[in-house]
Design a protein that fits this description.
eight-stranded antiparallel sheet, about 40% helix, extended
């Protein structure tokens, strides 16, 4: 780095030039204000300043204390508790002491090694000496034995020669006996020599083994000593000198003596020595939580390794009240995990389900029959048109000629097979029509030429558009004199359903279900549309489809109408339909004939399921019945958890919506009247009553009597039911009574509007205003040691009550607002003091009352509001 001037360096480090020059001078460097400074001079100055000031003081001493408690029994029923306190002081050595300690340990280690070598040499020499001594003794013993044997042999020889000279010559037998005796004596002598030699060898071995063991023991002791010394060197904290140890022992003795005198001991720290040590992590632990579709608060806390109340506390901060068993949906759980500073990983809970429903229908796709849904307004001739196509009287079997259920029929026409779905047209079956639209390829919208577009016609258009399905319009009842197809085209064009003749993309066919006019053209339009769509499906493999309708039959059990969309469905297959499963016991077509095999675009009635499946559920053939049972049970549980999670989420979202809109109250109303004009007039008048705080919301309205559908809608939306010149039927009354819904009848429109206005007034937040009820003037001030300043007052207006809030006025300006601490008349505490009487008033937490101040007593009154 380049050199810098003294002035620049002084400005960089925030000091004066004179002081910096003086510091350089103290460091032995002579500099003036204009000189340059290089890196070596800077470093020299830093070293000088470090030596001068020293580093930050560190603790060099640490004292550890420990308490133990024991109980001594003195006498039969007397016990004395003894507390023993131990103290150990650890001192951090300085660098000089550390060097001295290392030098001493090095000298000690060298001395120990020298002693070790000497001991080993000494042990080896002693073992060698002992072995030599034993060998020498053995040699001496052998020599003495040999000399003794030689002496005995010489003596025996002399005796034999003397006997030979004195006695006559020995016989042969005597010679043999003498020879045998000599051999026996020789054998015994050799055995004694061998035994002595063996004993000497064993003694030598034993001495050598003892010497080896002694050397190994010494080696082991030296090794342990070396390890202990190395461990002591590795410790950062060392025991202090013997002086501190002696002080600690003296302190322990004094503590024992004091504890023995004490008879009672606080239990505050009892059991401290039994507590386990736990080191809190220095930084927060970040965990990765695997989240499925749903999770309970308790499971989430367990995965985060924290207590449940921490998760609940976090959710309360986020604005949702939760319990430990509450089910959270995936989005909410993600927010909670991120709020708590952890990470998440979204996992798929449907591994078993996906494995079971693995796509094994891979094969060659072939052309399949189109699935056509017939939609339209009630009594516009949908079923009659299908009747003509099927050459059967389906409509005769329906109650009152109105279709009650979704019917599915496969029709063989001159142009090939076509599968028809007949959906109910009545308003009560809106949801059922929506399910029919999702399973279809083409929608035929039946519109009566003499009636035009009706409400259910509009809904059918909306369903078809939402499902993205092509629409073919069949203008029915063309045989009537009042038929007006151009009117139908005009009204449908307002719904953006424009005929090809007018430049649109929708085919219009004029038909008559009664005479059969235009039916062939309609079928050709269906086939043409199907060719454009190029409908194909795999004809082989496991069957898949959708549940069109389901019911519980008294004799046959659960019956499901299934439209096969891919593959083949056979009798005996295991079918999984949503939360239900079972082996297909029997299959029937729309005519009631039993069939064994159903291919793509074939509607069948299936028997053998475990329960009634929900219409609109997917149906799939699986191979393993046990796994199908597991998947069905898991789907049921997941559906329940998702429902709970959605309910909680809806509550939370509603709460946020209310907060954003300023907590607007809503009055939900279901309105039924005798004529359409009354409905429109009443609806308009009620909506005009809405304010910024209370909103009128008409959730349902219509002409005619109050039906069960109206009652169910009111129960679901928490609405009140208003009937204008109409009445509720028996079924609706039962529902209203069971749900405790408010039902009111009116015949005068003004009475209806006035009562709704009164109900809305009750929903308004009340107003509160302050009303002054008394005024007291301070005439004198007394000091009380307990209560502080006591104001001696005269009540000039109204009444002074002890329980009401007060204000202190000075020159008609409020200087304090609070409450009374005491109210006395003479020496008695009283609840109130009336006009013209004297009293003593103590103001709570306020002592600056002066003569001439006024004390104003007021109360808060609720004022009802009206619209």
């Amino acid at each position: 780095m380049a050199d810098v001037s003294i002035e620049k360096l002084a400005s960089d480090i925030g000091t004066t030039v004179d002081r910096l020059v003086g510091q350089f001078k103290d460091a032995g460097i002579t500099k003036s204000a204009g000189d340059q400074v290089n890196e070596d001079e800077k470093q020299k100055l830093l070293d000088h300043l470090s030596k001068q000031h020293g580093s930050a003081a560190e603790p060099t001493r640490m004292t550890l204390k420990r308490k133990t408690t024991s109980t001594l029994s003195v006498g039969k029923s007397k016990e004395v508790k003894v507390e023993v306190r131990k103290k150990r002081t650890y001192v951090k050595r300085s660098d000089v002491e550390e060097q001295q300690r290392l030098a001493e340990e090095e000298a000690k280690r060298a001395e120990e090694e020298r002693l070790k070598r000497e001991a080993e040499e000494k042990a080896a020499a002693e073992a060698k000496k002992a072995a030599e001594e034993k060998a020498r003794k053995a040699a001496e013993a052998k020599k003495a034995a040999d000399e003794e044997r030689a002496r005995r042999a010489e003596q025996a020889k002399k005796e034999a020669e003397a006997r030979k000279a004195d006695e006559p010559e020995m016989t042969e037998a005597e010679k043999a006996e003498a020879e045998a005796a000599r051999q026996e004596e020789e054998r015994l002598r050799k055995a004694q020599e061998e035994e002595a030699q063996k004993k000497l060898e064993e003694d030598a071995k034993k001495a050598a083994e003892e010497a080896r063991k002694l050397a190994e023991e010494n080696e082991r002791r030296w090794k342990e000593e070396e390890e202990r010394r190395k461990k002591a060197e590795a410790e950062e904290v060392h025991l202090h000198s013997n002086r501190y140890a002696q002080e600690a022992e003296d302190e322990e003795d004094m503590q024992v003596e004091r504890s023995s005198r004490r008879r009672r001991k606080s239990k505050k720290n009892a059991g401290e020595h039994l507590k386990q040590g736990f080191n809190k992590p220095a930084a927060p632990v970040e965990r990765v939580v695997k989240l499925g579709a749903t999770i309970t608060v308790g499971e989430l806390a367990s995965k985060l390794a924290i207590k449940s109340n921490e998760v609940i506390k976090t959710m309360m901060k986020m604005g949702e009240m939760a319990t430990i068993n509450q089910v959270l949906d995936q989005d909410t759980a993600v927010l909670v995990v991120e709020e708590m500073g952890h990470k998440f990983e979204l996992v798929n809970d449907n591994a078993l389900e996906e494995e079971l429903l693995a796509d094994d229908t891979a094969g060659e796709k072939t052309t399949r029959a189109p699935v056509v849904t017939i939609m339209g307004h009630v009594d516009h001739g949908k079923t009659s048109l299908l009747d003509y196509i099927r050459r059967a009287k389906v409509a005769d079997g329906e109650a009152g000629g109105i279709t009650q259920h979704i019917g599915a029929y496969k029709v063989q026409t001159d142009n090939g097979e076509i599968t028809f779905l007949d959906t109910p047209g009545h308003a009560a079956f809106t949801a059922m029509r929506a399910r029919g639209a999702t399973a279809t390829d083409i929608v035929i919208l039946v519109v009566a030429a003499d009636d035009g577009v009706m409400p259910q016609t509009k809904e059918a258009v909306q369903h078809a558009r939402a499902a993205g399905v092509p629409l073919i319009v069949a203008v029915n009842k063309m045989d009537k004199e009042t038929a007006d197809p151009d009117r139908v085209k005009t009204e449908l064009s307002q719904l953006e359903v424009i005929s090809e003749e007018w430049g649109g993309e929708h085919q219009f066919c004029n038909v008559s279900a009664k005479t059969g006019m235009g039916v062939d053209e309609l079928l050709e339009a269906i086939v043409l549309q199907a060719e454009v769509l190029d409908l194909k499906a795999v004809a082989d493999g496991a069957g898949r489809g959708i549940v069109i309708e389901s019911r519980l039959d008294k004799g046959r059990g659960p019956v499901a109408s299934v439209l096969v969309q891919e593959g083949q469905l056979r009798s005996g297959d295991i079918l999984l339909c949503g939360e239900e499963y079972g082996r297909v016991r029997a299959m029937r077509d729309e005519n009631g004939n039993e069939i064994k095999l159903a291919g793509p675009s074939t509607p069948v009635e299936v028997l053998g399921l475990s329960g009634v499946p929900v219409a609109g559920e997917d149906a799939a053939v699986v191979k393993d019945e046990r796994k199908a049972r597991e998947v069905a049970a898991k789907r049921h549980q997941k559906k329940r958890e998702l429902k709970l999670a959605r309910q909680q989420k809806a509550k939370l979202e509603n709460m946020f919506a209310n907060m954003e809109s300023g907590d607007v109250s809503e009055l939900n109303i279901v309105l039924k009247a005798d004529v359409q004009g009354s409905v429109e007039a009443i609806s308009e008048s009620l909506i005009k009553l809405s304010t910024s705080e209370v909103k009128v919301n008409i959730v349902g309205s219509g002409v005619g009597g109050i039906t069960e559908t109206d009652a169910t809608l009111a129960a679901a939306s928490g609405a009140i039911v208003l009937g204008f010149n109409v009445r509720a039927d028996a079924t609706a009354r039962r529902v209203l009574e069971a749900e405790e819904i408010d039902l009111r009848y009116y015949s005068v429109i003004y009475s209806l509007i006035d009562e709704v206005k009164a109900a809305m007034s009750g929903m308004l937040a009340p107003e509160f205003k302050q009303e002054i009820i008394g005024l007291a003037e301070v005439r004198d001030v007394f000091k009380s040691p307990k209560l502080g300043a006591i104001a001696g007052c005269m009540v000039t207006e109204g009444v002074v009550k002890r329980s009401n809030p007060i204000r202190v006025l000075r020159d008609n300006v409020v200087i304090y607002e609070g409450e009374l601490e005491s109210l006395r008349r003479f020496k008695d505490d009283v609840q109130e003091v009336r006009n013209g009487m004297e009293c003593g008033i103590g103001v709570k937490n306020y002592n600056d009352v002066k003569v001439g101040d006024q004390i104003e007593v007021f109360e808060i009154v609720e004022v009802k509001r009206e619209i």
